[in-house]
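Holo prediction. Input below; ligand is iron/sulfur cluster.
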Amino acid sequence: MKLLVTFSRKRGREPVIAQVVRDTGVLINVERAQIDSHEGEALIEVPDDACELVRERIEALGATAHRLDRTVVHNREECVDCGACISICPQDVFSFDTDWRLVVDEERCVLCGKCELACPHRALSLQA
Ligand code: SF4
Ligand code: SF4
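Structure of the complex:
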């Protein structure tokens, strides 16, 4: 399960994720992280059965954690199977099946947004 963690700039200087790992014993995979002048954001992957425990601990430390049930959303109706998203995605989310139709492996997505901008038919969107 993926969680989108948001924290203030001040919190960004503190090792929130490391504290959660220490406190819960749950191994967390950080898939993406960025901090700007106002706030920080991290996309983390946690085991499904530990999701609620990790989410509660993150919020107890003053950050927010939003559960992502979906990541990239593919609109089959709009897609023309051009393949532009295949070459731009850093996570190999997209591929063709044997009939050259686009296949989407949402689990691999880290919500970087590159495909949403690259798709000429606006067939991709992100759920955050
Ligand atoms: S870039 Fe858009 S139209 Fe092209 S294959 Fe990907 S989703 Fe389909
Ligand atoms: S948002 Fe980024 S990681 Fe996710 S499918 Fe699009 S290009 Fe790939």
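The longest strand covers residues 2-8. That is the main takeaway for now.
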